[in-house]
Design a protein that fits this description.
Elements: E1 18-20, E2 34-39, H1 56-66, E3 71-73, E4 79-81, E5 84-89, E6 95-100, H2 114-122, H3 134-138, E7 140-147, E8 150-155, H4 162-165, H5 179-185, E9 192-198, E10 202-207, E11 222-227, H6 231-239, E12 245-246, H7 254-259, E13 263-268, E14 273-277, H8 288-296, H9 300-306, E15 312-314, H10 338-347, E16 353-359, H11 367-378, E17 383-389, H12 395-398, E18 408-410, H13 416-423, H14 438-449, H15 453-470, E19 473-479, E20 481-486, E21 489-490, H16 500-504, H17 506-509, E22 511-512
Parallel strand pairs: 2-11, 2-12, 16-17
Antiparallel strand pairs: 1-13, 3-4, 5-6, 6-8, 7-8, 9-10, 10-11, 12-20, 13-20, 14-18, 14-19, 15-19, 21-22
């Protein structure tokens, strides 16, 4: 490693952990058996192209199973190597040298090396690419093969978080010269090779023998992920023993799960947030007073109480959460105030506002109910919200990023720059509010290269304040990850908090009890 001392390079500010477990005590990991999970977030358009992955089903199948990235965020928030064994940087964090793991092969027998890394990353910045990781890779001005197992990256500016970015679930490693074939058939270096894959329906994988991770991960002989987007069906599948684990439990049925002696519920606090992005380049959302009216017209605590049933906390229209190192929890909280909402409408020259809000439970569980709560809360301010219920299938491709005002969710990211670079940097593909604020962008680039932690904290605090006051995304709540597991499955003492289902790594970290 380099001499950079920033704590966030090695570990996030708050360690991950399971808040509550019910059921049998954890046991040591054993090898063998089959694991079946019922997951939401699947679509008939799913593929092994990491550039398109956006939800738990394909992320878990790919990054957690068939493919690997260069680095990995461990369950405790620390960063460790995956296909990269180690890395070091120049003093300005602008040039990074990654030493790659030797003796690694793809599922088709091809040896892994530097060419694979370079070609796998270049696909995200290729002409016409719509990859959400495009801005992460575009920041690399040069990729140089030093040896077969060493790659050097030169960045346009220093970035102390760069090794974290290389763990992004879009940045899967494919075999050079065979990427199209690898995407078509699922050929990676992961712990599980593809046995069957029916997009939007199921994935079956078999444990690779003699894998480079040895006995440290991948404890099941076979894994099966079944697409169950319907919440009730997912709960029933677990209750009847058809699957061993599910994500996104129905909070209203939580008592039934906890009463079942064969099951246990896991609740993990992280940066997952539910949101309502507005396209700020489109009227009326291009008026900051309209955005402020909508910020004061939402009852955040009511949503935490009625949508999350207490499994989360009020948010302040910023995606930086309690698991981030530079979370500005001291900022004054935006409060529900219809009078202030009405005042800002008047400042925008309006007596009332009529808008559509597109929502589907594909966005997050309870999204339609949340939109209806918003509708009722905003009405006294003269804000008339028409809730448009959208189909679940195709929501992320047909509604999100396309409709002016919609429901959305993010799992959050391990570092502030990673989150902002993914969704708030001007012009990036997943900037779901079309946010482009000169001061915010100036701070983003400055904080990215800043190695002084105190200075970086102040910069990120100001960025969070700008988003709270002027931003185009209403973020009313941080939602805990709440999932359920059969007692026939053993899980580690610490469950990852940067994404669902143990950072999407359940199929490599969990085992048969």
């Amino acid at each position: 490693m380099s001499g950079i001392s920033r704590r966030g390079l090695l570990k996030t500010g708050v360690a991950a952990g399971v808040l509550g477990l019910s059921g049998m005590p954890l046991r040591a990991q054993t090898r063998g058996g089959k694991f079946t999970a019922g997951l939401s977030g699947a679509n008939t358009s799913d593929s092994w192209d990491g550039r398109t992955h956006s939800d738990v089903f394909m992320i878990s199948a790919a990054l957690g199973g068939v493919f690997d990235a260069l680095t990995e965020v461990a369950a405790d928030g620390s960063l460790k190597g995956e296909l990269a064994e180690s890395w070091e940087a120049t003093a300005d964090a602008k040039t990074w040298t990654f030493n790659l793991r030797q003796g690694v092969t793809f599922h088709n027998g091809k040896a892994f090396g530097a060419d694979d890394v370079i070609e796998s990353l270049q696909m995200h910045v290729a002409e016409g690419s719509k990859s959400a990781a495009q801005p992460l890779v575009a920041a690399i001005t040069e990729m140089k093969k030093m040896t077969e197992h060493q790659v050097q990256f030169t960045l346009e500016s220093g970035n102390a978080d760069f090794p974290y970015l290389m763990s992004d679930y879009h940045l899967l490693m494919y075999p050079a010269g065979q990427i199209e074939e690898a995407i078509a058939n699922g050929i990676g270096t992961g712990l599980y090779s593809v046995v069957a894959f029916d997009p939007g329906v199921r994935f079956v994988g078999r444990r690779v023998s003699d894998h480079y991770k040895g006995d440290s991960a991948g404890f099941f002989d076979e894994i099966e992920l079944i697409a169950i987007n319907d919440n009730t069906a997912r709960m029933n599948a677990l209750m009847t023993g058809q699957v061993d684990a599910i994500n996104r439990i129905d909070f209203k049925a939580e008592a039934l799960l906890k009463a079942n002696p064969r099951l246990r519920v896991q609740e993990v606090t992280g940066n997952q947030h539910y949101s309502f992005p507005m396209l700020t380049k489109s009227a009326p959302f291009n008026d900051v007073n309209v955005r402020k009216a909508l910020k004061y017209g939402i009852n955040r605590q009511e949503m935490v109480d009625k949508i999350l049933l207490g499994h989360g906390r009020v948010a302040n229209d910023t995606p930086i959460g309690p698991a981030n190192q530079y979370y500005a929890g001291d900022l004054e909280q935006l409060a529900y105030d219809p009078d202030k909402a009405k005042f800002h409408l008047q400042q925008a020259g309006m007596d009332s506002l009529n808008i559509d809000l597109s929502a589907s439970n594909a966005a997050f569980e309870g999204a339609v109910d949340a939109a209806q709560l918003y509708q009722a809360a905003a009405a006294p301010a003269g804000i008339n919200i028409n809730v448009v219920q959208e189909p679940a299938d195709g929501y992320w491709s047909n509604v999100w990023l396309k409709k002016p005002f919609c429901a959305s969710y993010w799992t959050g990211r391990a570092t502030e720059d990673w989150m902002f670079s993914s969704a708030y940097e001007a012009g990036v593909p997943w900037n779901d509010s079309q946010w482009d604020h000169p001061r915010f962008q100036e701070l983003l680039y400055s904080a990215r290269a800043e190695l002084d932690s105190d200075k970086r904290r102040e910069q990120y605090r100001e960025m969070q304040m700008i988003l709270r006051d002027e931003g185009g995304v209403i973020i009313p709540m941080f939602a805990n990850f709440v999932q359920a597991v059969s007692n026939r499955i053993s899980t580690p003492d610490t469950i990852g908090n940067t994404a669902q289902m143990d950072n999407n790594r359940m199929i490599e970290r969990w085992s048969v009890a």
